[in-house]
Structure formats: C-alpha cells, structure tokens
Prior knowledge:
Two copies of one chain form a homodimer.
Chain A: E1 6-10, H1 23-35, E2 40-43, H2 55-67, E3 75-79, H3 84-96, E4 101-104, H4 115-129, E5 136-140, H5 142-145, H6 151-160, E6 165-170, H7 175-185, E7 189-192, H8 198-203, E8 208-211, H9 218-227, H10 232-241, H11 246-258, H12 275-290
Amino acid sequence: MSRRFGLSVALATAVEDGGKIALEAMIVQARRCLDAGCSSVTLFGTTGEGCSVGTQERERVLAAFLEAGIAADQIVVGVLVDAAEDAAAQAGHALERGACNILLAPPSYFKNVTDEGLFKWFSAVFTLLGTRARDIIVYNIPSVTMVPLSVSLIGRLRSTFPEIVVGVKDSSGDWPYTESLLGAHGDLIILIGDERHLARGVRLGGQGAISGVANFLPLEVRAMAEEGHDDGRIEDFVGELLNYPVTPAVKVMIARMTGDDVWLAVRPPLVPISGEGCEKLAAAFDALFRAKAA
Amino acid sequence: MSRRFGLSVALATAVEDGGKIALEAMIVQARRCLDAGCSSVTLFGTTGEGCSVGTQERERVLAAFLEAGIAADQIVVGVLVDAAEDAAAQAGHALERGACNILLAPPSYFKNVTDEGLFKWFSAVFTLLGTRARDIIVYNIPSVTMVPLSVSLIGRLRSTFPEIVVGVKDSSGDWPYTESLLGAHGDLIILIGDERHLARGVRLGGQGAISGVANFLPLEVRAMAEEGHDDGRIEDFVGELLNYPVTPAVKVMIARMTGDDVWLAVRPPLVPISGEGCEKLAAAFDALFRAKAA
C-alpha cells in the first residue's frame, strides 16, 4: 500500500433501546465522516464497543455497510477477542469481504503475559488465517487491555510476518513509547490513538490515526492526522473527555452534532453519561470550538 | 437443586504441540477426578484456559465428553467472553446439552465499569438465553478480570433473576469479601476459589469449590470442600503455585501425576514453566505430600 493511512474514524456503534444495533444511524454517520475527509471507517474498535458486539452481529453490520455502498477498502475491522480461533474467524470473515485492514488487539483475559506468549498468540491467529492473512494492524491499548505490546515484540512480529503485520495502532498515550515506536518501526503504518500526541507523531513519520474524536470533529482531526497540524483545542477537549468513560462521552458529542438521541445509548457494561455530564461536555466543546466561530 | 454443589475440578485443557485440543487426555483426566470423588468437572474456567478456547472448539470438547459417557449433569461450563451475544450463544449451547451449571464471568475488556452496567450486561445475557436460562453461577475473579462483582450487585441479580442466578464462584482471594458474601447470600451456592480460604468458607456455609488444585489433589481438596477440613499442606502448596502463573503450574503437576507430557503445553498467551520451575514445584509438592506418606 503506497498511500498513507490517513485518518480513520473509530466509528461509534449506534444501539437502540432494546439493545439492537441501529444500522441506518451508523451508516449515516460513516458517510458523514467519509465525506468530511476520513480515509476509512473503523468498525468495532474500542470507541465502537467492539468487545460488546457479537460474532453474528459483526457480520450483519459489515454486510449492511457493503450493501449501502460503503467501499470495502474504506473499512477497517477491529477484532478484540481472546481465543485465537475466534479472532481468526472474525478477521478472516472481514478480510474475505475486502476490509482494508484488521485492527487486532492482543488477548486480554490473562494479565502479566510475556512477549513470547503474545508472539505465539499472534502467530496462531495468522496460521489459522492462512492465505487470508494480510494488512494486520496490531493494537496497543494497555490502559484498557492491561496487556502492553513492547517495541521489541512488534519487531519480532514484523520480521516474522513481513507480508502480514503492516502497522501498529498506539493508544498507549505514552509519548516516550510512541517516539521509540516511530524510531524503530516508522516504516510501518504507525497510528497514534491519543489525539494529544497525534500531530507531533505525524511530524515524526506517523501515518495518521484511528480516532474516536473524528466522529464529531473530522476536519480538525484530519488536519492533525494528514498534515501534522497542532490543534490546542483538540488537546484541551480530549482532556475534558477523559473526565468520563471515553466511549459514552464520544456518543454524547455525536448525539449533539446529529440531533439523533439514538447515539446516547451504550451497550452494557458501559452506561450513559449523566445529564449534568452531557451539559459540561457541551459547554466545554462550545467554549473551545464555537466561541471562535462566533 | 437440593444436593450440595461439592467439589468441581477446574479441568485443565490438554493441548497438543500444534495447538489442537487433546480430547482423549482431557477425558481421562476428567474420569480420574470424578472417580476420586469430584461431583463435577468444570470445562473452560480460568484454569481450563477458557478464554483461549474458541466457540467451535468448545462445542467439539463438550460433544466429545458427552460421547465418552461423562454425564451432562456432571459438567459445568465456563463462559468468559465479553459480547452478550457470544456469551448467550456459548451458555445456551451448553445448557441445551444438559450442563448442570454455567460459570459466567463478567465482561472484562472495559475497566472501571459500574454495578449498573454489569447488572445490565448479565440481564442482556439472560434475555438472550430466554427460556434456556438456568443454573448460572456468576464468577468473581477480579485479579484476572479486573472487574469485581460487589455483594450488592449479586443481591440485585439474585432478586431480579431468582430462578436463574443460583450461585457465585468467589476467586477474589479476599477473605473479608468472602465472609460478607456468605453472610448476605449464604443460601446461594457460594464456591470458594482460593483453596486457602476453602475449608473456612465451607464451615460458614459455602457449598464447595471449583478448584484447579483438584486436578492433582482431588481427595485432599474434597475433604476441604465437602467437610470443611483444614489442610495446611494445601494452603502451603497454593502459596508455592502462586510463585508462577497458576494455569501452567497446575499443568506441571498434572503432567507429573499422569506421566503424560501433553499436559506441559499451554495455549498462548500463556507459556510453559521453565524446567527449573517445574523442579521447584515438584520438590515443594514432595516435601508437603510425600514426606508424610513415606
């Protein structure tokens, strides 16, 4: 792939009151983000509550997206399950349907695992994928998984699977780690998950982001992810978001932007943000982004 | 169910070099434990590396056990997945085939979740199970999941789902929690996962255990789980085991007891214990359990 990865929106998953996925709202939101210049949409990442979307549901969502005319090569699919068999089944299904990349998290039930164990787990998934294995972006998000992916593990994976492991999404929020990753593996697709480090990482060779904030600020995040432009407003607003569980907070902002309250619902074990929290988020957003436009 | 739960062995999952599950070794081990007085076998718990066994594999293992003549009502099935849809699919399959209980862990990808979110997650699983929902033992193992189940959450679950939520496996290793659980919900099946607290818990009304140590010391753990007998040797040996990741350590002991090296293998992300570690475990075991028999 010679084109830069650019900005992929970590698409939120819309759910109805009864818990069903609201496909139409998701497709509308995906189109809006693509129209605003996102290079792709990422389904079932952390912001997309991927861990809460079952195997059958995932297939229904992907089918609906393709049927709605969203191009397969603009769809990244997150795989956040522990069993190598299930990870390969989910990834294989998406790759067969043409997804451009798989965002593959390490297994996270067991803690304190070794690089050797993680290497073998990824190897097992790739073996099960067989000839379907391609375009894997490994996913480092230790604040959630508690399972960090070391720079040396990534070196071992890329040298053993050079045609398969093409990138890393780094949501560590740990700048020294990000910097060492860019230094050691900057020829891979390095994506910076923490928007506060995004522009700086892109200037050091990062290829962009899979970003939750792109759900409601796609143009602004794009300028960071494509051109490495600093944006203090985004940095400040991410600080506000982090006062809340991130996924419901992102959904509050989508609901506000679209006027569609379907976005306020989350899947358990997450819960929606209180009315007071919604107001505080909105006020912080307006102070940063509306005041200057007025 | 009027009979006491008693002792269920948290059966280890035997895997061949290529990663396939060694069904015959597992069935032999299950029979050995049942013959030694275990009331049931628990498949796919934490010791059984349940998080590493895929949906299709689980069905093959359960089918093989039933075909081998192990009674369905002597089989407990662990379900350790995040998506309510997948949890209901796995639990429903086992319940339809007659499993006596489901050991159901909370979703563990997201951390810092609320009781409200967990209550809704369990509710979603039970709703998806529909009329199949029965005999659920909820699984508290916060050292692994990082998602504790509070005593009040268990109260809410049992009062809302009195015909479904029948017990708690408490692997917190936190005696004050165990004591408060027995005080508040001692009429449920309370199972004590930490063998060092087992006898004491049983004397306070606990109904037994799902125990990894029962893989190689079934008679000794049974005396604790059925009669509340203290056994300082078990307490000391659990202390030794906890110097290592527990699942590979249990497998070292099964390999030694059976002479079958298939038990030394683990699934990634776990890795086997070093030769030196194996020797230390064996020496500790012999010092505690063989010396007195000599």
